[in-house]
Specification:
By secondary structure, this protein is α/β, with parallel strands linked by helices. 29% of the residues lie in helices and 32% in strands.
């Protein structure tokens, strides 16, 4: 099996297990709370009837708090995820948290999902774009996100880059298993170019280390987590 298919299989199996075992907004996993940067950017969006697109939405860690915050302005979040099980759970959680009428969830591979032009005020892609099949697909998806965004609309992109596994005993490093493993520099250089006519609001990276045991060995999973946000037509 090639790297893409192995990475996709691992991605699906990891998330299906997590979404079955962990409960949204309860401590014990990364589903415990939304990503602060996603919520912070809502504050600078002054639109009524706000339209939000959440790509790779999972079970609603970000979409549900966003939907709650835009309920008062008759807003709606369109949520897209590859996994039918994630979308089912998201619908259940949306009902539980009182936002069913402010949220629409659908199953699709983001890479092939057609984004309606000139529609969205806010596009969120949190841990999604690193699952595109190639650099070309990544660039093309961002161009579609841009075309789908209204003037003064905002993008919030968070993604893992430079994913690697380091054997703690030998110090040997190998590339991590992920569909698109860009270096942080490469990701930023693509983003800077694509967003050259937008106002860049945030551009930062932090190293993330997760210690795990794999095949009986202590392994460090290391990645550079990037946060990139920008406003259309802002400069
Ligand atoms: C780490 S989770 C993040 C979920 C959510 N964005 C959050 O921050 O809670 C990544 C999600 O992306 C979804 N995903 C991965 N590849 C995808 C693709 N090609 N199209 C749509 N969703 C995808 C996975 O099923 C998973 O739910």
């Amino acid at each position: 099996m090639d790297i893409f298919n192995r990475a996709r299989e691992k991605e699906i199996s990891y998330h299906e297990t997590l979404y079955k075992e962990a409960v949204l907004f309860q401590p014990g996993s990364w589903l415990a709370k939304p990503v602060q940067a996603v919520l912070d950017h809502l504050e600078i969006l002054p639109f009524r009837e706000m339209r939000v697109l959440d790509l790779g939405c999972g079970v609603g860690r970000n979409s549900i708090p966003v939907a709650q915050r835009i309920q008062a302005v008759n807003g709606k979040v369109i949520c897209v995820d590859l996994l039918p099980s994630a979308v089912d759970k998201l619908r259940q959680y949306a009902a539980l948290h009182g936002v069913s009428s402010n949220l629409e969830a659908l199953v699709a591979d983001v890479e092939h999902y057609e984004i309606t032009e000139n529609t969205y005020h806010y596009v969120i892609a949190c841990s999604c774009l690193e699952h595109m099949s190639s650099e070309e697909a990544f660039v093309s998806k961002i161009k579609q996100m841009q075309a789908g965004t209204v003037e003064q609309g905002v993008h919030c992109i968070l993604m893992s880059t430079e994913v690697k596994e380091i054997d703690q005993e030998t110090g040997l490093e190998e590339g991590g298993l992920i569909e698109l493993n860009l270096s942080a520099d490469k990701a930023f250089s693509i983003l800077d170019e694509l967003y050259s006519e937008w106002e860049i609001l945030t551009s930062r990276q932090v190293q993330q280390d997760i210690q795990e045991v794999k095949d009986g060995r202590d392994v460090l999973f290391r990645s550079q987590w990037i946060t990139f946000t920008a406003r259309k037509g802002g400069c």
